[in-house]
Amino acid sequence: MGSPCDNCGEPSTVHLTRIVGKEKQRVHLCQKCADKQDLLKKQVLQIHNVLHALMGPMPLATLSCPACRIQFMEFRNHGRLGCPHDYDSLRQGLEDIIRRLQGAKKHIGKRPTVISIDPQQNRDLITKRRELQESIHAEDFALAANLRDSIKQTMETLQGNNG
Amino acid sequence: MNLDFLAAGSGGWLSGAGPDSDIVVSTRIRLARNLATFPFSSRASSHQKAEIEQILRDRLGQIELKTPLEYLPLAGLGPLDRQFLVERQLISRELAGGEGARGVAFAPDESVSVMVNEEDHLRMQVMRSGLALESAWECMDDLDNRLERRIAYAFHEEFGYLTACPTNVGTGMRASIMLHLPALEYTRQSEQVFRALQKIHLEVRGLYGEGSRASGHFYQISNQVTLGKNEESILKDIQGVIPAVIRYEKDAREAWSRSDKVALNERIRRALETLRTATMMTSEEAMELLSLVRLGVTMGLVDELTLPVLNQLFIHTQPAHLQKLAGRALDSEQRNAARARYLQARLEGKGPEATGIDSDSTA
């Protein structure tokens, strides 16, 4: 058994070495007290920051779309995107590809005149459609029914707006 | 819908009319569009694809056009009918070979076709005979505007119309001109011309598009870039180079005729003779020979045939068309015999209906 927690006397599981000036201090804490002090979280956060600084921006392999869940590497392998929102969610990897393919970055042609576009709403609908499929797959029919109603409602409002 | 009635005819875009139609066969403009609130087709579940098809089929039925579109679901169609639609250029090979809910809406004169659930939710195309970019775009733009009032397209302030593949993003437009360039090919100058076109970001492909060989010396020239230029300037770029390509082909024909008229004439007459008398003929051979005869017709060396008939023969001698005309499935050997019989009959001046293509093919 190690030392008791410096704070409450319970058996300690977290052991830290703090260096203050030239003096070395040993700190022993139980999990509860460590959580309270947010010590571990701070440590994790710091490690993440260090790694990030060392490796540069997030590697493309970890890019994915929250709406359709396609991963950037999936797109790289098959050449097809998963949903319209990918142009934002995978942008970091796509920009370079688009520039090389097209030699340009910005659309300057025709644009829709009638439909008002709400990207947030579009993304939510694609997300809900995916969740609906997943809930059916998992046989969570209550959730599926909820999602279906919610999608239907949004679509009806959209169509109402569009005449 | 029974497709058999289509088999004996051909799309209006093959009529052989329009300026420079001796070299420019047809003009095609295609737009790719997607619904804003669905995943792209390749990631959509079968249920979602059915929903997409239902929505688009519904909207396509609502728009008012001079010639209304008729929707044909592909899911219930056999492989022969699907292949037939590919040969007809009404659908792509990708749509034919795909799965799940998908289909095509097209005008009876075949000047407009709209594919549903191809790589993109909507692939709309307008076809015209000869060089007619302006009128094709007018029609395409109008169809797009009418649909846009009923469908929320996936559109991005920066990237424009969003497509499943970034090669189409922006305008989503691919405009292509189909040309018949036998003299450039026979005189081995085609490579040189195509390289020059590629340098200015134009693409050159065969008769049936991506990855297909240039059979019958037909080539499609189209824009490579869809982003950073508006539709008008993309069309202008293509329009701008076509006269030069036509000029090169005409020069090659003249030079060939000047240097070796007897041999050229001989070659064309023999091609015609082979088409008239052969009892077996593969699709490739038919394309090659018909191409020579087409060259002969446009150069005034063959006067017993017209361009519209020849244009039609290129399509009618394709495998699925032959089987449709015969009214039954034929294996490849039977097709070669049927093809030869069909060509004989048509070159004797008979119409496509009275060709006796299905006389005993096992004999």
Kindly describe this structure.
The complex is a heterodimer of chains A (163) and B (363). Chain A has 163 residues and is mainly α. Chain A has 3 domains: 1-37, no CATH class; 39-106, no CATH class; 119-162. Chain A has helices spanning 31-36, 39-55, 72-78, 86-89, 91-102, 119-137, 141-162, and strands at residues 14-20, 23-29. In chain A, strands 1-2 form a two-stranded antiparallel ribbon. The longest helix of chain A is centred in the C-terminal third of the chain and has 22 residues, at 141-162. Chain A is elongated, with a radius of gyration of 25 Å. The mean pLDDT of chain A is 81. The longest helix of chain B is centred in the last third of the chain and has 47 residues, at 231-277. Chain B has an 8-stranded antiparallel beta sheet, covered by helices on one side. Chain B has a two-stranded antiparallel ribbon with strand order 6-7. Chain B has a domain at 259-354. Chain B contains 12 helices and 10 strands. By secondary structure, chain B is α+β, with helices and mostly antiparallel strands. Chain B is globular. The two termini of chain B are 34 Å apart. Chain B has helices at residues 4-7, 46-62, 79-87, 93-97, 133-148, 182-186, 190-199, 231-277, 283-298, 307-316, 319-326, 332-347, and strands at 24-33, 70-73, 103-106, 112-116, 122-129, 155-156, 160-161, 173-180, 202-205, 218-223. The mean pLDDT of chain B is 91.
